[in-house]
């Protein structure tokens, strides 16, 4: 397919005037955003501001009603969704590993079933990526036998097995205990260093400072402000951003 | 040695002798309180009174050899009607020279259960066997394509029960799954059709569906075209059971977390692959117990075909009990019938337990 050729030229994700409603509720308002290849974007904002909805629109787990989304140079028109999703990896807050399959099978099945990769090759790739997230020793266990942090690292490896061009993260650490957050963030930092294009919804501001090229602040379904982390954290422009940053930086807790 | 690193050696749990364990069990489970002890004594007395009686009547004083009713002991069971008519009970009016076909069909049906027991069997081979089984059974029993045909009127007894039950099970489950998926489909037409079908079938007693199949279908068919009666009741049983299974499977589909569907979608699984690889394996695991209950129900419902003139094993039993030759021996005949269904249904339910444990074990 010609998706690959386009990316080297333009942005990997280009969103223009995106609007989305749930019934009567207007949850995304005139969002415009574009992400360059290799860019790391952190999206933050109070609960209910539409962060999840926005990144779920990018791989069309949610459909939008207005505006255009282009991913890897292709406008999303509701067709060929499977092809699109195979190039866009996603990690969820609740891991969503397949409980009836072993860790290894979780990582190989998507490759064999959706990409037609031969089994031996799929296993090799899976083991390589499990090694990268330090979970190779657990390859034959079932997800229920593992801790949350371990499961999330496997979920990342599973997504990477599809060799995606973009990775989406929706609060990957917010269901985890503090000591497990670090191990997942470490994996994500490693991924960023490898040059993956990443869009992360997270409240881990340490991660944002260290890894992000740009931080996007959302509130009430709108993008209020976007800036490189140094600027974003030191001189936030909007009073809403200031209030949000005060809340999470001073209290260390996630905004309610 | 350093005190801090010293680890106490592992000890075995305390062992009690058999006698101690038994007496403890008797005390704890049979005589834990006054009321309980009384109940135990009453039950024991009842058992002591009726077991010898039953044993005498059923087995010890019962008649097993002989050929006419004159050989029967009038004060105990007489199993001669069952023994004398055994072939009728099993094969019905199937031509004697062709009975090997019935035997082979029975064996094939039992084979399916045996194969399912083996854990590491290739899943595709198993599936192929299950797909072939009903076709093979039908061909073996009914004939055609090389085998001499056997008319449906010659079918009776266990042959009918086992054939209707086995073929019904194999077709009803996939159809039920499709209906359940259809009922949750995003396409309104498909959803509406499935809802209509499921609700209609579930709100009509199976007996009236059987009557419809035996009487009404003929009205819609052009004159001269006949639909085999066995085929008709088979289809009704499948369609009926499938509607119930659809509801069971739908419950399972609904109880699965949304995240499973989303994760599959996000990894690029299409609809059928999501269902086949991710959703249904989990749902079927959960729904094995209710599904097997429905299989057992189907097996017992096969007896209803009697009302449309197909002589299943119950039909043979009734006609035996009503025959001049064996009149007055209905007790024995119906006890035998009960035993027959009990054995098969109990085996099915044990089998379900086994599968369940097996899958539990697989998972953790
Ligand atoms: N399936 C849905 N149906 C109706 N409303 C929804 C649905 N999902 C989300 N919403 C609403 O859309 C808005 C945005 O939700 P979203 O989940 O995107 O917020 P969020 O920024 O991710 O919040 P959080 O930090 O709590 O995850 C909220 O007001 C929410 O109530
Ligand atoms: Mg969210």
From TrEMBL, chain A:
Q: Where found?
A: Cell inner membrane
Q: Which stretch is the leader sequence? A: none
Any keyword Protein biosynthesis?
A: no
Query: Looking at the keywords, is Cell inner membrane present?
Result: yes
Q: What UniProt keywords are attached to this protein's entry?
A: Amino-acid transport, ATP-binding, Cell inner membrane, Cell membrane, Membrane, Nucleotide-binding, Transport
Gene Ontology cellular-component terms for this entry are: plasma membrane
For molecular function, the Gene Ontology terms on record are: ABC-type amino acid transporter activity; ATP binding; ATP hydrolysis activity
What PANTHER family has UniProt attached to this entry? AMINO ACID IMPORT ATP-BINDING PROTEIN (PTHR43166), PHOSPHONATES IMPORT ATP-BINDING PROTEIN PHNC (PTHR43166:SF4)
Topology of the protein relative to the lipid bilayer? Peripheral membrane protein
Q: Provide the protein name.
A: Amino acid ABC transporter ATP-binding protein, PAAT family
Q: Which family does it belong to?
A: Belongs to the ABC transporter superfamily.
* One Pfam family recorded for the sequence: ABC_tran
Q: Which organism is it from?
A: Pseudomonas trivialis
Domain ABC transporter residues, every copy: 13-245
- What CDD domains does its record include? ABC_HisP_GlnQ (cd03262)
Q: Which Gene3D superfamilies match?
A: P-loop containing nucleotide triphosphate hydrolases (3.40.50.300)
What InterPro entries does the entry give? AAA+_ATPase (IPR003593), ABC_ATPase_HisP-typ (IPR030679), ABC_transporter-like_ATP-bd (IPR003439), ABC_transporter-like_CS (IPR017871), MetN_ABC_transporter-like (IPR050086), P-loop_NTPase (IPR027417)
UniProtKB/TrEMBL annotation, chain B:
Tell me which InterPro entries the record gives.
AA_ABC_transptr_permease_3TM, ArtM/GltK/GlnP/TcyL/YhdX-like, MetI-like, MetI-like_sf
Taxonomic superkingdom = Bacteria
ABC transmembrane type-1 domain: residues covered: 158-352
Per the record, GO CC terms?
A: ATP-binding cassette (ABC) transporter complex
Chief location of this protein within or outside the cell: membrane
- Its membrane topology, per UniProt? Multi-pass membrane protein
Keyword list, A-Z: Amino-acid transport, Cell membrane, Membrane, Transmembrane, Transmembrane helix, Transport
Q: Which residues form the signal peptide?
A: none
Cell location: Cell inner membrane; Cell membrane
Q: Name one GO biological process term.
A: amino acid transport
CDD domains from the UniProt entry? TM_PBP2
Q: Where are the transmembrane segments?
A: 34-55, 100-118, 125-141, 161-181, 193-217, 229-246, 304-327, 333-352
What Pfam families would the database entry show? BPD_transp_1
Q: Name one GO molecular function term.
A: transmembrane transporter activity
The similarity comment for this entry is: Belongs to the binding-protein-dependent transport system permease family. HisMQ subfamily.
Protein's UniProt name: Amino acid ABC transporter permease
């Amino acid at each position: 397919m010609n998706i690959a050729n386009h990316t080297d030229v333009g942005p990997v994700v280009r969103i223009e005037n995106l609007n989305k409603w749930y019934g009567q509720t207007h949850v995304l308002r005139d969002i415009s955003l574009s992400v360059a290849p290799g860019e790391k974007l952190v999206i933050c904002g109070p609960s209910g501001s539409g962060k999840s909805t926005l990144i779920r629109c990018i791989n069309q787990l949610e459909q939008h009603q207005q505006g255009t989304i282009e991913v890897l140079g292709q406008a999303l028109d509701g067709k060929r969704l499977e092809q699109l999703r195979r190039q866009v990896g996603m990690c969820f807050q609740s891991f969503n590993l397949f409980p009836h399959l072993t860790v290894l099978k979780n990582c190989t099945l998507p490759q064999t079933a959706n990409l037609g990769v031969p089994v031996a090759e799929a296993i090799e790739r899976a083991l390589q990526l499990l090694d990268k997230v330090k979970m190779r020793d657990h390859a034959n266990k079932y997800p229920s036998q593992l801790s949350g942090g371990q499961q999330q690292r496997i979920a990342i490896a599973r997504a990477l097995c599809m060799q995606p061009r973009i990775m989406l993260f929706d609060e990957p650490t917010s269901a985890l205990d503090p000591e497990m957050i670090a191990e997942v963030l470490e994996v994500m930092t490693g991924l960023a260093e490898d040059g993956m294009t990443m869009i992360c919804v997270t409240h881990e501001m340490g991660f944002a400072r260290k890894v992000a090229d740009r931080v996007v602040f959302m509130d009430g379904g709108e993008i209020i402000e976007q800036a490189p982390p140094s600027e974003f954290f030191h001189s936030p422009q909007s009073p809403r951003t200031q209030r949000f940053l005060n809340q999470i930086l001073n209290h260390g807790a996630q905004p309610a | 040695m350093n005190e801090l690193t010293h680890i106490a050696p592992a000890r075995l749990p305390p062992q009690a002798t058999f006698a101690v364990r038994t007496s403890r069990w008797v005390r704890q489970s049979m005589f834990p309180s006054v009321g309980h002890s009384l109940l135990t004594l009453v039950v024991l007395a009842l058992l002591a009174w009726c077991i010898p009686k039953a044993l005498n009547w059923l087995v010890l004083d019962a008649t097993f050899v002989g050929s006419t009713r004159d050989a029967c002991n009038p004060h105990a069971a007489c199993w001669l009607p069952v023994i004398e008519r055994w072939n009728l009970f099993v094969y019905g009016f199937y031509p004697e020279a062709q009975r090997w076909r019935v035997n082979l069909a029975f064996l094939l049906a039992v084979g399916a259960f045996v194969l399912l027991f083996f854990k590491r069997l290739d899943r595709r081979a198993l599936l192929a066997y299950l797909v072939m089984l009903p076709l093979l059974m039908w061909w073996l029993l009914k004939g055609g394509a090389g085998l001499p045909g056997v008319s449906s009127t010659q079918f009776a007894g266990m042959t009918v029960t086992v054939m209707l039950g086995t073929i019904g099970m194999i077709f009803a489950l996939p159809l039920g799954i499709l209906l359940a998926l259809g009922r949750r489909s995003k396409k309104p037409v498909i959803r509406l059709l499935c809802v209509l079908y499921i609700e209609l079938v579930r709100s009509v007693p199976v007996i009236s569906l059987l009557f419809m199949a035996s009487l009404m279908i003929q009205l819609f068919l052009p004159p001269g075209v006949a639909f085999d009666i066995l085929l008709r009741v088979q289809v009704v049983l499948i369609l009926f059971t499938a509607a119930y299974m659809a509801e069971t499977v739908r419950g399972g589909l609904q109880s699965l977390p949304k995240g499973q569907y989303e994760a599959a979608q996000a990894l690029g699984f299409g609809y059928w692959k999501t269902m086949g690889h991710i959703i249904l394996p989990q749902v079927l695991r959960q729904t094995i117990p209710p599904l097997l209950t429905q299989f057992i129900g189907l097996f017992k419902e096969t007896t209803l075909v009697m009302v449309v003139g197909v002589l299943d094993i119950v039909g043979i039993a009734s006609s035996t009990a009503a025959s001049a030759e064996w009149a007055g021996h209905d007790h024995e005949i119906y006890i035998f019938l009960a035993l027959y269904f009990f054995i098969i249904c109990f085996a099915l339910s044990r089998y379900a337990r086994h599968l369940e444990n097996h899958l539990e074990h697989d998972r953790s």
